[in-house]
């Protein structure tokens, strides 16, 4: 269900969800070393530079400043899909369609492993958990795995377990990584691991790899319509998983 958007005016919200990430990012980026930004087509890699880190950190802060809906407190920890990469208004990204009071910690290029974005600072999912939960949460939704498909699987599993360990006192829902055609095979491997570990921890795992969604020209990030479709489907599948009246998807 789509809720009316409330723009957060208190600096504490930005500080709690993204300020620490921004500070760490600006301090941790390097102009000298380069690497591939997850989500780029081979041969068209983007260097992980100070400018890129600053841009992604700014998008993270902008999305964290937008609080949507009312009701139970939902925190989404995610990547560029959560932060609204490529959108004119990052507040249009998919978490706005969840049914509750939603706060978002999204940072492009990140995931459970430190991976290629470690040059931007301590911004992997497990490293961000303490900051994003300062205002509490009734439900935490994890949306990652696309970028992790380019990392060593053992490192991804280590980061995934570390994230779940830090969330042991919260209700957690893990979304599978969605389908990105350019690396669908590698994403399936990450999803298989996440499903296995989520079951071990007794955490709900929801498959979204089956979805075909409208993408931007990069064929990696969602259009505004894609965010709406993804958000509405995720909201419905979360409700179904919690009601236990509908079988798990895939």
Automatic annotation (TrEMBL):
UniProt xrefs under PROSITE patterns: PROKAR_LIPOPROTEIN
Signal peptide: 1-26
Domain SGNH hydrolase-type esterase: 76-227
Keyword Cell membrane: no
Coiled coil location: none
UniProt entry keywords in alphabetical sequence: Signal
InterPro entries: Ester_Hydrolysis_Enzymes (IPR051532), SGNH_hydro (IPR013830), SGNH_hydro_sf (IPR036514)
Top-rank taxon, per record: Bacteria
Keyword Lipid biosynthesis appears in the UniProt entry: no
Entry protein name: Lysophospholipase L1-like esterase
Species whose genome carries this gene: Nocardioides albus
């Amino acid at each position: 269900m789509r809720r009316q958007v409330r723009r957060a005016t208190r600096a504490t919200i930005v500080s709690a969800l993204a300020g620490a990430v921004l500070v760490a990012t600006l301090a941790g980026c390097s102009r000298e070393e380069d690497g591939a930004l997850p989500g780029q087509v081979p041969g068209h890699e983007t260097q992980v530079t100070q400018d890129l880190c600053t841009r992604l950190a700014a998008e993270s802060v902008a999305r964290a400043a937008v609080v949507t809906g009312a009701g139970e407190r939902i925190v989404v920890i995610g990547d560029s899909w959560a932060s609204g990469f490529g959108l004119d208004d990052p507040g249009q990204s998919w978490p706005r369609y969840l049914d509750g009071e939603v706060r978002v910690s999204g940072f492009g290029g990140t995931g459970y492993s430190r991976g290629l974005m470690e040059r931007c600072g301590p911004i992997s999912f497990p490293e961000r958990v303490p900051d994003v939960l300062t205002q509490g949460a009734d439900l935490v939704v994890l949306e990652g795995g696309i970028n992790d498909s380019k990392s060593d699987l053992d490192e991804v599993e280590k980061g995934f377990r570390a994230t779940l360990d830090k969330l042991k006192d919260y209700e957690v829902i893990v979304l599978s990584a969605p389908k990105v055609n350019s690396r669908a095979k590698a994403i399936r491997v990450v999803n298989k691991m996440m499903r296995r570990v989520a079951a071990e921890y007794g955490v709900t795992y929801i498959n979204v790899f089956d979805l075909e969604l409208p993408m931007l020209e990069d064929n990696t990030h969602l259009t505004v319509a894609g965010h709406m479709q993804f958000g509405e489907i995720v909201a419905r599948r979360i409700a179904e998983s919690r009601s236990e009246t509908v079988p798990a998807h895939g």
